[in-house]
Amino acid sequence: MKIIVAGGDGFCGWPTSLYLSEQGHEVYIIDNLKRRDWDTELESQSITPIKTLEDRVNCWEETTGKKIKMYIGDLQDYDFLSSVFKEVHPDAFVHFAEQRAAPYSMIDREHAVFTQVNNVIGTLNVLYAMREYTPECHMIKLGTMGEYGTPNIDIEEGYITIEHKGRKDTLPFPKQPGSFYHLSKVHDSNNIMFACRVWGLKATDLNQGVVYGVQTHQTRKDPRLVNRFDFDGVFGTALNRFCVQAATGSDITVYGQGGQTRGFIDIEDTIRCIELAALNPPESGDFRVFNQFTEEFSVQDLAEKVYKITDNMNLNPNIVHLENPRVEKEVHYYNAIHTQLMDLGLKPHYLTDARLEELVKHVQENKDRVLYDKILPTIKWR
Amino acid sequence: MKIIVAGGDGFCGWPTSLYLSEQGHEVYIIDNLKRRDWDTELESQSITPIKTLEDRVNCWEETTGKKIKMYIGDLQDYDFLSSVFKEVHPDAFVHFAEQRAAPYSMIDREHAVFTQVNNVIGTLNVLYAMREYTPECHMIKLGTMGEYGTPNIDIEEGYITIEHKGRKDTLPFPKQPGSFYHLSKVHDSNNIMFACRVWGLKATDLNQGVVYGVQTHQTRKDPRLVNRFDFDGVFGTALNRFCVQAATGSDITVYGQGGQTRGFIDIEDTIRCIELAALNPPESGDFRVFNQFTEEFSVQDLAEKVYKITDNMNLNPNIVHLENPRVEKEVHYYNAIHTQLMDLGLKPHYLTDARLEELVKHVQENKDRVLYDKILPTIKWR
Q1: I need a surface site. Which of B75, B89, B98, B157 has the fewest CB within 10 A?
Q2: pLDDT tens digit string along A183-200?
Q3: Mean pLDDT computed over every residue of chain A
Q4: Which one of the listed residues A185, A216, A255, A261 is annotated catalytic?
């Protein structure tokens, strides 16, 4: 298949590009390299020393003989996007190319506006380009489990059948997103659903859980292929932060009581989910939604897992509780359905002690790149 | 009360401003005058010859002794918006200032992008300005019944209690908007709901039905105060189009079989609903949703009403059916709850023969301003 990976220089996009390339697909990366600018803006960096996109792509070709073509540009630039569609005529468009950090969207008004315009208009442009040049192309769009919030009922995959006053309908699952970033993903989902219905496009919305891991089978082939590892209070996940803290002798900091439960997925499973979606496209006109995660943990669960591993490694970890900078329920019901990707053949990797130990060791190997003043949260929701 | 009416030069905003002013409130209009530019762009015009905003406001002061201050600028310009908030410190912010035509948003990609950025970012800026300068200000936001689409269950006012697999929660009512314009309103609602929850702001989302009528008690005080009347295929409603067609000897054109049922409201009730919302604000942190309409009609019902009236006026009307340029169900269940504004004291005006006759006579009086080649739809959804 001819697959465009938009955002192919990012944490999920890069290993996805390599995996799809290794599986024999023709891979084309679109990226505006903004993720690297945000590191500069925030005076932060990936703990793993990542190479330029050009070096990475060249290294992949050297190592495997497989070519990945890259297009440097912005999805908001419709002329650029059109030229790529006209040249590639993709079978699938994998769309990771969004600003993906909730705290970044909450920095101030400018960052909220940037996040919503960047994400929503970028996606709108892709829909128009698909309609204009490749109506048979399958959009595989990264959403987030965070779109749903924490309702007091089971979270279904995108739709729910509601019985109400003696009548019944299957409707989009009600969303309660928790940041301007999460809202941008909800706006996207609504726009894409409409475009599928009205123009007969086909799309899969992958509501992904929190992704963990750094390396994949493909990025391990050469040190120059290493994936990024974010640890700062803006782009780093709680699990990454805990690993960095425990590996460097700092306290493991849990927001509030840590009762917030979320879905999680290994980066090795993310890349497989993308291919499973691509190999099994929906019908034209279908807007399909998968919940893309494999396990649920509370933040406190994660902290305790990291504690246990790093205690065994004699790192003397310690868990402390901080005031939560976000506005979210700390005690809530959480049960999200996630069977459709399993039905398509996903064989999950779970969060084992070995996987966690690997993460901690990654940090230890790159300890000199940790910026200690960037770990704790500085952006508040209120 | 000190009330800002954003979009105060428009079809709903102008009569609302006059009504609130007459009721004794201090009214401040914000408008970027874009609605007039769109007429220029589309080579169309209001059938009623409206005056400039400056002339209208001066005429109101001459006629009633009441002053309305106006600020010409764009909600996307945060410095401008901030300066107004700092000067006025409003108790309520009535927000009509959006691109409000579904067909306009469907012209092409540029118009879809414009509509979503204009509406969503304008509203986001108002939320930030409220948070920064007047957290006690009540946002009264115009939404649309079109956000809900046509689900096969009763449409509740903003929220629905769902029982699912033995558990229960009250969640945002699932939306199925039918154009990029309607989607922009859904995006707005989601952003506002979040801002209320996280920042403790207060807002009322008025999901308004199709508004009909031209004049109100206040606009009738002087011909220079006349409200606009849109008839073209982009900004005109079906009812307006039917009146223009019947008044000028053209066929009344119904899209498809005309089974599409919608909620309707008289402009005289719109202005009262705004004041009712303003006088009865929600608590801080509340995002309240009212369905703002008084009657339901199918498009075919409307055509037949216009037929009957204009037949009595010996205008020899004729109803024909055109291919529907939109993608929407023509046969569907429709029952939308709309009790909250009635509970606050709304006394509805209904769509009487007299009201319809007045509309037709308005057209007859301004027959020379009808642009016949602008009546039929040219913008297609597919």
Answers
A1: B89
A2: 999 999 999 999 999 999
A3: 97
A4: A185
* Whole-number pLDDT of residue B295: 97
Picking from A228, A177, A184, the residue whose alpha carbon sits closest to that of residue A95 is A184
Q: What are phi and psi of B107, to 5 degrees?
A: -60, -50
C-alpha gyration radius of chain A: 20
The SS3 assignment for B184 reads: helix
Cβ contacts (< 8 Å) between B124 and chain A: which residues? 109, 112-113, 116, 180
* CA dist., res. B148 & res. B209, Å (int): 11
User: Average pLDDT of A134-151?
Assistant: 98
Residues in chain B with CB shorter than 8 Å from the CB of A163 are 153, 163
Token pair for A269: 């499973």
* CA-atom Rg of chain B in angstroms: 20
Give the SS3 label for residue B126: helix
Q: How far apart are CA B213 and CA B244, in angstroms?
A: 13
Query: Is residue A374 helix, strand or coil?
Result: helix
B311 in Cβ contact with B226 (< 8 Å): no
Does the ipTM exceed 0.90? yes
Kindly compute the dihedral angle of the four CA atoms of residues A50, A53, A56, A58, in this order, to the nearest 10 degrees: -160
Choose the mutation target among B105, B108, B118, B120 for the interface with A, i.e. most A CBs under 10 Å.
B120
Q: Which residues of chain B have pLDDT under 50?
A: none
Tally of CB atoms within 10 A around A363: 22
Is 3.40.630.10 the CATH number for A2-374? no
Task: Give all strands (DSSP E) within A196-336, no chain letters.
Answer: 202-208, 210-212, 252-255, 261-266, 287-292, 295-298, 319-322
| Residue A144 is a catalytic residue | yes
Token duo for residue A62 = 């050297």
In this prediction, residues A260-283 reach a mean pLDDT of 98
SS3 B28: strand
d(CA A302, CA A314): 18
Hey, which residues does B30 pair with through a beta bridge? B6, B71
pLDDT class of A153 with cuts at 50, 70, 90? very high
Interface test with A, best of B182, B187, B189 (most A CBs within 10 A): B187
Residues near A34 by beta carbon (within 8 Å), at least 6 away in sequence: A74, A99
pLDDT tens for each residue of A79-129: 999 999 999 999 999 999 999 999 999 999 999 999 999 999 999 999 999
What does the pLDDT average to over A216-227?
98
- The single-letter DSSP state of residue B246 is H
